[in-house]
Amino acid sequence: MTTGASGSQAAPGALLQExxxxxxxxxxxxxxxxxxxAIVRPRSTQEVSAVLALCKDARQPVVTQGGRTGxxxxxxxxxxxxxxxxxxxxxxxxxxxxxxxxTVQAGVVLQVLQEAVQEEGLCYGVxxxxxxxxxxxxxxxTNAGGNRVIRYGMTRASVLxxxxxxxxxxVISSMNAMLKNNTGYDLKQxxxxxxxxxxxxxxxxxxxHEVPTSQCTALVACDDFDxxxxxxxxxxxxxxxxxxxFEVMWQDYFHLVTTSPAKGRSPFAREPELCVLVExxxxxxxxxxxxxxxxxEAAMAAGWAxxxxxxxxxxxxxxxxxxxxxxxxxxxxxxxxxxxxxxPIVEMDAYVRQLQAEVRRRWAGGRCWVFGHIGDGNxxxxxxxxxxxxxxxxxxxxxxYEPLRRYRGAVSAEHGIGIAKRPWLSVTRTTQxxxxxxxxxxxxxxxxxxxxxxxxxxxxxxxx
Length: 464
Fold this sequence. Notes:
Uridine Diphospho-n-acetylenolpyruvylglucosamine Reductase, domain 2, oxidoreductase, 5-stranded antiparallel beta sheet, FAD-bd_oxidored_4_C, globular, Alpha-Beta Plaits, alpha+beta
């Protein structure tokens, strides 16, 4: 027997038979390799609606899964939970090249979407490392960020309309395809970034852009963080809106990913205090390249850049990005804990210095690596305390998260809250905000069946 979030019981065998009637025999997976009660794989919004209606009647908790690339345990399901997988909802329904929109099902893989729209001379602005397996629905549910937020915004900025199914099976279809639609509440915002706790996203209309016809990339060495801030403002001003990426690597991380056994190599004569990967997307070819080079020369003349290497080919550009993306180098350390936080750019230097000093003070041999999408205020932090001890993860989390109160930061920049970060939500959100989140959850999912325990946790605790 399984116990739903409301406390009543349902017979799993009967429920599974009803689910098979909806999705077909291949739509329900069970067995020893399935950690959850079962995996149900609907093919359409209508099937998702029928599945959730059955689960509501059976008081069966449901965990939605897309590409399973989340890092906060949001899609991890337990033995008593039913997994709703969007893997068979993988159709690109249509591309409007004139209106620059695409209509997709939630299970479409990000890279598949990118390649399909590129054939039409268009691009989808959201991009991140897990593009080969992450799905559109998952990125909407978590409001994913990535490498190009500084130009295209978070996923939220690319969603024009969507379709979602509530916990009781009600379909909310708001498949707007217009940039301007100011008619009442913008209901899609309820589901973007709610991590599947308010409804299951099944379809979406996404905004596209013309493919840039030129791209300029450079690695820039800076002597201090003040120079990084000046360089950011300078490049934004001189590139006239074409700045697409501004990635910063602190020295410890840059050293790790450019020193053997890492495959990357530094283009600089001496190792910089901070290294910035700057990239602009344009449409003017040679004049873009000249403008990019001129901006870097001016930055060097002003003292904001100590050195710079401009990519002379696609291969060199890819090599620069591989340095930034060589996060696998961190996997050689154990235990190691990885975080994505956000805070005002002007507070970053003090925060990083404090964290690095505290790691060194607490653990001889402790390491702290920092890099991130500085242009949009996002830092990725990894801490290796160099020893195992009881409660070590909680200790490291406190070191990383508690100072964010002082620096006006957020415990999650782009990965969401899920289960892993729920104990730290109050660092970022007030009591009143969390209470309002719970009231929204209670209103849309009164039985607490959708992704229970995620973000704000159970909404029916008072009933127990």
